[in-house]
Amino acid sequence: MRGFKYARVWRIDKFPMGVKRVGINYVLNDGDVVEIHSSL
């Protein structure tokens, strides 16, 4: 994915603060909410 910087993933049951900043190779699970940030 050209221009990808990072993604924020919300998974309430897994992360203490509810959100985690992840890279391109992060494996998503059903129910994850994703916000993608790019340089474009």
Give an account of the 3D structure.
With 40 residues, this protein is mainly β. It has one domain. It contains no helices and 3 strands. A 3-stranded antiparallel β-sheet has the order 2-1-3, with no helix packed on it. A hairpin with an 8-residue loop joins strand 1 and strand 2. The mean pLDDT is 89.
Proportion of residues in helical segments: under 10%
* Major sheet attributes: 3 strands, antiparallel
Query: How many angstroms does the end-to-end distance come to?
Result: 11 Å
Instruction: Calculate the mean pLDDT score and round it.
Output: 89
Strand order of the largest sheet: 2-1-3
Order of helices and strands: EEE
Q: How many DSSP-defined strands?
A: 3
The shape is: elongated
Topology record:
Elements: E1 4-10, E2 19-22, E3 33-38
Antiparallel strand pairs: 1-2, 1-3
Give the key terms:
elongated; 3 strands; 40 residues; 3-stranded antiparallel beta sheet; mainly beta; single chain
